Amino acid sequence: MFAVAGEGLGTRVVLEELSRTYSDGTGLLPTDLVIEPGEFVSVLGPSGCGKSTLLRLLAGLDRPQQGRIRLGDEVVCDVGRGEFVPPRRRRLGMVFQDLALWPHLTVAANVGFPLRVTGVARAEAGQRVAEALARVELAAAAEKMPHQLSGGQQQRVAIARALVARPSLLLMDEPLSALDAALREQLRTEIRSLTTELGLTTVFVTHDQAEAMSMSDRIVVMRAGRVLQHGSPEELYHRPTDLFVAEFVGTFNPLPSGGGVRAEAVRVLGETPAAPDEVTLSGTVRSSVFTGGAYQLRCAVDGVDRLWTVPDRRAHAAGTELRLAVRADDVFTPAA
Ligand code: ADP
Ligand code: MG
């Protein structure tokens, strides 16, 4: 289920036939998508596939050539009818990878900036800034200057700034890409808790499949301006409908008998027979690398080298002939 606990502010997002292409034909091709209130949706795909284009259209920073956008009950963009609601009236917050803070303003002034623009009274604004900073655990940094904060803290200030106007939709475009790995993982968890707590609908753009997997209710996979597949992280991982999706979200090992499986879907049979719901393979071990919880096994199956992840207790020597079993349930057949 979607996160509807919190304050229940999340808005429903509906895109209908939305498109924005550039002169070279790239951008966003006509796209339909529904995002439920409180849902955390990642838009995942390689660089240049149209993720930011989609987000900018949602934000109202760019205009589509075709289609409609609904936020809750309101149509905020309808090309056919010439309707267009500007960004500041869409009740959304935005965080970008490089949305720099104003260096000459304090943290509090940075966070309060969107309220000044819309003319919220000073006392009310002060209270909301304090609230937003508390949400990202930076209450103590209110009077600091941005350069006095770490990269992760600065990004949290940007998040507080996105939240200060109490949006019902949060848009984030690769907000963690500039941070180091440890901080990125910590902020994944923090962002997810925050949006759940607030009941916010969130659209999170990333090219990092692990990030999308670990944060999302649903992942929308894009390639070359199109949505290829959307579904829960588990659906995408276990039932990719498309070869590109299969390869983008994990390792895809085609089987000689047709279909494919994930690297960890195999078990080493030894002398025991396979279960009735299993398919067997035979392979020759090329190498076996211990990675802590498992071995990464390079195995030739039908003359083609494949990488498998097996949670065995000991290495399999190079040259060993192995019988491997895969559950029929784990086999999927993506379209090429
Ligand atoms: P992503 O965010 O997935 O990396 P973008 O949405 O930024 O991709 O870009 C999608 C495609 O549209 C790219 O091929 C890019 O070069 C092109 N594009 C984006 N913005 C513009 C623009 N303002 N003018 C021309 N082409 C653009
Ligand atoms: Mg982008």
Q: Which helices and strands, and how do they pair?
A:
Elements: E1 13-21, E2 27-35, E3 40-44, H1 51-59, E4 66-71, E5 74-78, E6 83-84, E7 92-96, H2 107-118, H3 122-135, H4 151-163, E8 169-173, H5 181-198, E9 201-206, H6 209-215, E10 218-223, E11 226-231, H7 233-238, H8 243-248, E12 253-254, E13 260-261, E14 266-268, E15 278-290, E16 295-301, E17 304-310, E18 321-327
Helix pairs in contact: 2-3, 2-4, 3-4
The protein binds adenosine-5'-diphosphate and magnesium ion (MG).
Explain this structure.
This protein has 336 residues and is of the alpha+beta class. The chain has two domains: 13-243, Rossmann fold (3-Layer(aba) Sandwich), CATH 3.40.50; 256-330, Nucleic acid-binding proteins (OB fold (Dihydrolipoamide Acetyltransferase, E2P)). The chain has eight helices and 18 strands. The chain has helices spanning 51-59, 107-118, 122-135, 151-163, 181-198, 209-215, 233-238, 243-248, and strands at 13-21, 27-35, 40-44, 66-71, 74-78, 83-84, 92-96, 169-173, 201-206, 218-223, 226-231, 253-254, 260-261, 266-268, 278-290, 295-301, 304-310, 321-327. The strands form four sheets. The protein has a six-stranded mixed sheet, sandwiched between helices. A five-stranded antiparallel sheet has the order 2-1-4-5-6, with helices on one face. β5 and β6 (83-84) form a beta hairpin. α2 (107-118) crosses α3 (122-135), α2 (107-118) packs parallel to α4 and α3 packs across α4. The structure holds adenosine-5'-diphosphate (ADP) and magnesium ion. Residues 22, 26-27, 45, 47-53 line the site of adenosine-5'-diphosphate.
